[in-house]
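Dear colleague,

Thank you for sharing your sequence with our group. We've completed the structure prediction you requested, and as agreed, I am returning the results in plain text so they can be pasted directly into your records. Please verify that the sequence below matches your submission; if there's any discrepancy, let me know and we will rerun it promptly.
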Amino acid sequence: MAQINAPALQFNNSAVFGINPKPFIYFQPQCRSLTKKPLVIEARANARKESAKTLNRRMLKKFNGTAKHPRLSVFCSDKQLYAMLVDDKNKKCLFYGSTLQKSFRQDPPCSTVEAAQRVGEALVKACVDLNITEISSYDRNGLGRGERLNAFEIAISSYGFLPR
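Please find the predicted structure tokens below.
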């Protein structure tokens, strides 16, 4: 193929494609250092401590409740306490008690700490009715002990669920 030396129209790419080019300005750094920064590898924060949810999920894989040895799950929010006896084999809740229930809160009116103690006493009564002598595991959902949880634990430890 022969090349033709004819005057040709010259177009910028921007004129053909309808793009307004922005000028590219390159600034050179003021100082160039030849030293490189060392590579630093950091471990995860709190590698030995895991979140409460992670620990609780791992524990649930190991402990499963049955009808005769249920799992006692207790959750303590900022203001209330919730307790459940769970039969994991049949996927049933054998007992549920909360400091929000009127049966524990009234007759006579009381604080949440006293209501938590009443929930523990009602749990013991339910266990006697269901012929439950021990629990498979005590699940606090990874939470620390507070006033309500201590009052609840004292009430159920008198029955022999928790070693005190």
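Summary note from our side: The two ends are 99 Å apart (CA to CA).

Kind regards,
the structure core
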